[in-house]
Each structure stands twice: as C-alpha cells, then as structure tokens.
C-alpha cells in the first residue's frame, strides 16, 4: 500500500472533524495487516476529557471490524506540519501494532516522514 494514499485519506477525513473548541482538525488513516483501510477524525466534547483523537477513532473502527494488527497509520492536520500522535494514542498504536511493527506517517510540507512506534514511544508496554 502506498503511504501517499493513506495520507490523502487522512487529509480528506480531517475535514469531518468536530472541533468547536480547539479548532484543530486531525485526520488519521490506518492500514491493517490484512490490507484494510480505516479512517477517523478527532471529535470534541464540552467535557474535554471525552474528546477522542483521530488516531484512536481510526483504530477503534478497525477493531470494531475485527482487525487487531495495524501496519501503518497516516496522521494529518492542516494546522501544522508533523502532527505527532499524543501520548495516549502512541500507547494505543503500540498495543495494536503488527508483528513487524507500525509505521507512523506524518506530513512535513509536501514530504512524508516515516517513524516507527519505537522512535515515538521508547519502552512502550504491552501485556
């Protein structure tokens, strides 16, 4: 699967973000071990702790469809380059990474940058 396509899908779904408080849209697109694609965007709530990140939204969609192993995720926000996942999302990605790890694809202007979960979450844990 070409990572450019995953980023395009992340960019498209970011337009659906529900962000009345932060005004910070994020889109994510995951590629599972079975080569299925799932997208998600962030959505906020007036009780800020109930806000859901785009990454966890996309992972949750994959899980709801029976997928448990993710090979790659593209993350995009039109508000910033290199929109890194938050700490909670990093831990979720660590838990559901494929046996060969997970590539985290971020956009830096027009260039895609690829990171491993180990680079973004050294010493992550999994039972």
Number of domains: 1
Order of helices and strands: HEEHEHEEH
The CATH architecture comes to 3-Layer(aba) Sandwich
- The 3D shape can be described as globular
Number of strands: 5
| Spans of at least 5 consecutive residues with low confidence | none
Kindly identify the CATH topology.
Answer: Cytidine Deaminase, domain 2
Which CATH first-tier class would you pick? Alpha Beta
* Assembly of the depicted chains: single chain
Instruction: Characterize the biggest β-sheet.
Output: 5 strands, mixed
Structural class: alpha+beta
What's the CATH H-level homologous superfamily?
Answer: Cytidine Deaminase, domain 2
The residue fraction in helices comes out at 25-40%
**How far apart are the first and last residues' alpha carbons, in Å?**
29 Å
Description of the structure:
The protein has 127 residues and is α+β, with helices and mostly antiparallel strands. It has one domain (3-120): Cytidine Deaminase, domain 2 (3-Layer(aba) Sandwich). The protein contains four helices and five strands. The protein has helices at residues 3-14, 54-64, 87-95, 117-120; strands at 27-32, 37-41, 70-76, 103-108, 111-116. Strands 2-1-3-4-5 form a five-stranded mixed beta sheet.
């Amino acid at each position: 699967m070409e990572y450019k396509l995953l980023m395009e899908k992340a960019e498209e779904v970011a337009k659906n973000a529900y962000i009345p408080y932060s005004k910070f849209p994020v889109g994510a697109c995951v590629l599972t071990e079975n080569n299925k694609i799932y997208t998600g965007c962030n959505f906020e709530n007036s009780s800020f702790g109930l806000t859901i990140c785009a990454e966890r939204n996309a992972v949750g969609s994959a899980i709801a469809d029976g997928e448990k192993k993710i090979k790659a995720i593209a993350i995009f926000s039109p508000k910033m380059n290199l929109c890194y996942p938050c700490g909670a999302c990093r831990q979720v990605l660590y838990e559901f990474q494929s046996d060969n790890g997970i590539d985290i694809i971020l956009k830096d202007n027009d260039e895609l940058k690829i990171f491993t979960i180990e680079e973004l979450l050294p010493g992550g844990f999994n039972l």
